[in-house]
Amino acid sequence: MRQSLTGDIHLNTFPAAPSLTAFFGGTFDPIHYGHLQPVTALAKLVGLTQVVLMPNNVPPHRQQPGASARQRLHMAELAVAGNALFTVDDRELQRQTPSYTIETLEALRAEKGHDAPLGFIIGQDSLLTLHHWQRWQDLLSVCHLLVCARPGYRSTLETPELQRWLDNHLTHSPDDLHQQPHGRIFLADTPLVTISATEIRQRRRQGLDCHDLLPPAVIHYIDEHDLYR
Ligand code: ATP
């Protein structure tokens, strides 16, 4: 804002610099504190004000989730209801055919324009298998990779070539993630949470309590729909 000689107040007309948005894809079968707690900590560490949860479609030839796409979406929505950091985007579930992450990210990049900083959040286990993803080497020309720590997974990549690729793109500076639109990898020192969706589904089958593993509203939904029995 600036004040003219006559004392009138004028609002600057410069467009605001686009802020860093991060998308967080997953099967979320179901969503749990192992997703929410590290990502909330990551948001604080790098100054993220918006995280978009994106439940994914599971290709028919892969093992199908225990909950339907619609149920996984509902659980994600319930998990973050009233939490201003998170929104949920169902674009991958709207598609008739499963899409590769790179295709979704390219569509997001096209929507946001060349200069908007864009992040994609993954856990350490996903980083270790990233080289099996479709067109994985194109990911950094579209987004940054923001990696949450996950206990029980090695910290280095499988081969020296992959590790070199990681080292070449690594940044320790959150500023880089805001100032550059894509191309950096940030390994976030987030709290280690041992929870997995597999464990939750197993505990449900065994009739065991899960109250400290996922939000109460999600547990209620799982009970109501008799999921993972
Ligand atoms: P499952 O046990 O069914 O394989 P999951 O618990 O690993 O599921 P996903 O929905 O497959 O959950 O994971 C989505 C993303 O969240 C992935 O990038 C994964 O690495 C990350 N993630 C899941 N659980 C954790 C956790 N406890 N800590 C850090 N990252 C996690």
Automatic annotation (TrEMBL):
GO biological process: what's one of them?
NAD+ biosynthetic process
Q: Where is the signal peptide?
A: none
UniProt-listed Enzyme Commission number(s): 2.7.7.18
| Biochemical pathway | Cofactor biosynthesis; NAD(+) biosynthesis; deamido-NAD(+) from nicotinate D-ribonucleotide: step 1/1
Q: Which GO terms describe its molecular function?
A: ATP binding; nicotinate-nucleotide adenylyltransferase activity
The UniProt function text for this chain reads: Catalyzes the reversible adenylation of nicotinate mononucleotide (NaMN) to nicotinic acid adenine dinucleotide (NaAD).
Checking PANTHER family in the record gives:
NICOTINATE-NUCLEOTIDE ADENYLYLTRANSFERASE-RELATED, PHOSPHOPANTETHEINE ADENYLYLTRANSFERASE
User: Under which name does UniProt file this protein?
Assistant: Probable nicotinate-nucleotide adenylyltransferase
Identify the species of origin: Samsonia erythrinae
What gene is it encoded by?
nadD
